[in-house]
Amino acid sequence: MHARAGLILANRAFVDSAPGRHGASRPVAASGGLLAAVRPAIAPWEGGAGTTWIGAGLAGGDHELRNGGGVELVGLPQGVLRQRRLLFDHGTWAGHYAAVSNSFLWPLLHLVRLPLPDLTAYYPRPATPLPEEWAAFERVNQAFAKAASNEPAGTAWIHDYQLGLVPAMLRRLEPGRRIGFFLHTPFPNPDVAAACLDAAGLARLSTVVRGMLGADRIGFQCRPDVDRFAAWLERFEGLEPKGGSVVIEGRAVSFDAYPVGIDAAEVDQLASLPGRSPEAAEALAAGLPLVVGLERSDYTKGIPERLEAIAAALDAGSRFAYVGIAAPTRAGVAAYDRLETAIAQAATGARRAAAAAGTPFVQLRQAIPFEEVVALQREADVVFTSSLADGMNLVPLQAAVAQSRRLPERRAVLIAGRDAGISHAYGASNAPGLVSIDPLDRAATAEALRTAVAGKAPRVSDAFIREVRRNDARAWATQFLTDLEDAPC
Ligand code: F6P
Q1: One-character DSSP codes across 130-187
Q2: Sheet holding 413-417, edge to edge
Q3: CA-CA distance, 399 to 471, in Å (whole number)?
Q4: Quick check: CB of 185 below 6 Å from ligand 1?
Q5: Between the chain's N and C termini, which has fewer beta carbons within 10 Å?
Q6: Is residue 16 in contact with ligand 1, taking CB distance under 6 Å?
Q7: Do 111 and 389 meet the contact criterion of CB atoms below 8 Å apart?
Q8: Cα of 377 to ligand 1 centre, how many Å?
Q9: Distance, CA 452 to ligand 1 centroid (Å)?
Q10: For residue 9, how far is its CA from the centre of ligand 1 (angstroms)?
């Protein structure tokens, strides 16, 4: 069975538009892990039925939609998407996106075990929003709830922290609608979060949790997120969660872990293309093992720590080529500038170590097409991720599928941070292929890299690849939506 959603709400529009030349606008497809995961849950719009996607338009095009209800039918390769694009003024969007979503909630939600702002030079302390920033966040969430309530009855599936207030707001507008919420990020450790927040910040997080509780069912990435959420409900909301369910205002809300998956068929298809990534050419020509690092340039990804481990491994005598590509993200959010300085410093050390060892080293700050990402994942001997914390981390999952084209004894070693969802979802399984590290333990991380480069760590196994394929994005969406339909209403 393959379940589809009637109404999907996500911060970003599925297809946005940017102003083109001569005033005409051109379509811009959104990208990212959330979009890729949710895509299989979209039913094409046919005969008045299918999925409606509600998301914000950011690119500034199509201003005539601002007052026109914003419904559009967009032709996509998989069929027609019915989309309702919401447009906001600059000030409202800055408060909602840069301030509350990405300077307060994003750093806060990733505090799963350790007070990361105290342990690195660049991880930002969650900034308690100013009243006007919070008001902007509420306005945007209210606009999403209102837009959803204007749609015909049917299940609404709301995604991620930017829309954390929407479930309760929609419930107030439409008490009878079935509502699901999925958090793509981790949920924080209550003690660590409390230690990093002032009283006002704590109250704001509590409001977001209350907002999420407007849903009938809440999905988290992994079991530890579920446990931390239950602990928060007990400690800060005075509620009594039991067995993955909690009663609030006479209503039962259920919650569970649904580790997100990838579009394995898409990765398979791209991995079958003959092209090589230009970045890997020098490494392959040198005949050295190829280590790759790929991600958004985010302070949760542990990029400086990885570069320091690379320098240490090279200094200790390992020989490998490194290609690191970090795509710029969230321009205008201050903490990302500090991160770039930390990356540049760590890259200078790693580049010096590589020059001394006579091995190729590249660390680029740029976005590359997804087919090049997959080509690098296919050609790598070590896929080195090092998230300090991560909802899931899809890169090693994509790499496992890309590597399936190689013989088992030639496949890569996948390295991931111990607090990334992937380490919980796959680390304990009997399917070898993933090595978990603590990126803040530089010596152990460098040693894990040395072992992987020497071919002494477990390589991606057939069993691991089978697991990744079985738990793909389609299976994830189907499981969540099926359980949501079964939830008591
Ligand atoms: O898909 C990964 C993710 O980090 C989601 O958790 C989040 O909703 C999305 O990216 C946000 O990305 P952006 O800030 O670029 O819209």
Answers
A1: PHHHHHHHHHHHHHHHHHHHTSPSS-EEEESGGGTTHHHHHHHH-TTS-EEEE--S--
A2: 361-365, 321-327, 290-296, 382-384, 413-417, 434-437
A3: 15
A4: yes
A5: N
A6: no
A7: yes
A8: 21
A9: 30
A10: 13
> Looking at residue 243, what DSSP letter applies?
T
Are residues 246 and 210 in contact, defined by beta-carbon separation less than 8 angstroms?
no
Please state, in angstroms and rounded to a whole number, the distance separating the CA atoms of residues 477 and 40: 7
One digit per residue, the tens of pLDDT, for the chain of length 489 reads: 677 889 999 999 998 876 655 555 666 777 778 888 898 889 999 988 999 999 998 766 555 554 456 788 888 888 899 999 998 999 999 999 999 999 999 999 999 999 999 999 999 999 999 999 999 999 999 999 999 999 988 899 999 999 999 999 999 999 999 999 999 999 999 999 999 999 999 999 999 999 999 999 999 999 999 999 999 999 999 999 999 999 999 999 999 999 999 999 999 999 999 877 887 888 788 899 999 999 999 999 999 999 999 999 999 999 999 999 999 999 889 899 999 999 999 999 999 999 999 999 999 999 999 999 999 999 999 999 999 999 999 999 999 999 999 999 999 999 999 999 999 999 877 778 899 999 999 999 999 999 999 999 999 999 999 999 999 999 999 999 999 998 776
Decide whether any atom of ligand 1 lies within 6 Å of the 12 Cβ: yes
With the most atoms of ligand 1 within 8 angstroms of its CB, the residue from 8, 9, 11 to mutate is: 11
